[in-house]
UniProtKB/TrEMBL annotation:
<dbReference type="InterPro" id="IPR013324">
    <property type="entry name" value="RNA_pol_sigma_r3/r4-like"/>
</dbReference>
<dbReference type="InterPro" id="IPR013325">
    <property type="entry name" value="RNA_pol_sigma_r2"/>
</dbReference>
<comment type="similarity">
    <text>Belongs to the sigma-70 factor family. ECF subfamily.</text>
</comment>
<keyword id="KW-0731">Sigma factor</keyword>
<keyword id="KW-0805">Transcription regulation</keyword>
<dbReference type="InterPro" id="IPR013249">
    <property type="entry name" value="RNA_pol_sigma70_r4_t2"/>
</dbReference>
<dbReference type="Pfam" id="PF04542">
    <property type="entry name" value="Sigma70_r2"/>
</dbReference>
<dbReference type="InterPro" id="IPR039425">
    <property type="entry name" value="RNA_pol_sigma-70-like"/>
</dbReference>
<feature type="domain" description="RNA polymerase sigma-70 region 2">
    <location>
        <begin position="6"/>
        <end position="68"/>
    </location>
</feature>
<feature type="domain" description="RNA polymerase sigma factor 70 region 4 type 2">
    <location>
        <begin position="97"/>
        <end position="146"/>
    </location>
</feature>
<dbReference type="InterPro" id="IPR036388">
    <property type="entry name" value="WH-like_DNA-bd_sf"/>
</dbReference>
<protein>
    <submittedName>
        <fullName>RNA polymerase sigma-70 factor, ECF subfamily</fullName>
    </submittedName>
</protein>
<keyword id="KW-0804">Transcription</keyword>
<dbReference type="InterPro" id="IPR014284">
    <property type="entry name" value="RNA_pol_sigma-70_dom"/>
</dbReference>
<dbReference type="InterPro" id="IPR007627">
    <property type="entry name" value="RNA_pol_sigma70_r2"/>
</dbReference>
<dbReference type="Pfam" id="PF08281">
    <property type="entry name" value="Sigma70_r4_2"/>
</dbReference>
């Protein structure tokens, strides 16, 4: 049995997920391409049908995540640039941002999700696929590490001695 028998159902399912015809056509095309490249494609139609639906669903979820991440990044960049222009202490902002960039990736991730994006701990836990309590402790450690790193910068030391 070939994939062309399933095309009407695949198109209908993709359209129900994406709500836009061109996006649904892209989903179906990507799913068929992925299926044709697979060495483990089921042969019987009874097995092929749900397998193709899963591929379409997974592709849709992946694309939705990509769009959300791009939008969040864009919004954050806009917000950060607005914050920077409205701030009275540009040197402090630059110090915080450069110090943030030096943190380990796990600390940057949790601070970005909770402090920059304003997500609740439960939302960050879901995204990071860790328990709620783990996010709480990671945020605490990351904030402490950021503050300690900022206080250790030469600019901060010079500023504190002038007071």
């Amino acid at each position: 049995m070939t994939l062309d028998v399933l095309l009407p159902e695949l198109r209908a399912y993709a359209l129900s997920l994406s709500k836009h015809r061109h996006d649904s056509e892209d989903l179906v095309q990507d799913a068929i391409e992925r299926a044709l490249r697979s060495d483990k494609r089921p042969k019987p139609l009874a097995d092929l049908r749900p397998w193709m639906f899963r591929i379409i669903r997974n592709l849709h979820v992946d694309e939705t995540r990509k769009k959300r991440v791009r939008m969040e990044y864009s919004n954050t960049q806009s917000r950060l640039s607005i914050d920077l222009t409205q701030s009275h202490d540009h040197a402090e902002d630059i110090t915080v941002r450069t110090t943030f960039a030096t943190l380990p990736p796990a600390m940057r991730e949790v601070l970005f999700l909770v402090d920059v994006m304003g997500m609740k701990y439960a939302e960050a836990a879901e995204i990071m696929e860790v328990p709620h309590g783990t996010v709480m402790s990671r945020v605490s450690r990351a904030r402490r590490a950021l503050i300690e790193a900022i206080e250790a910068t030469p600019e901060r030391a010079n500023k504190d001695t002038k007071r």
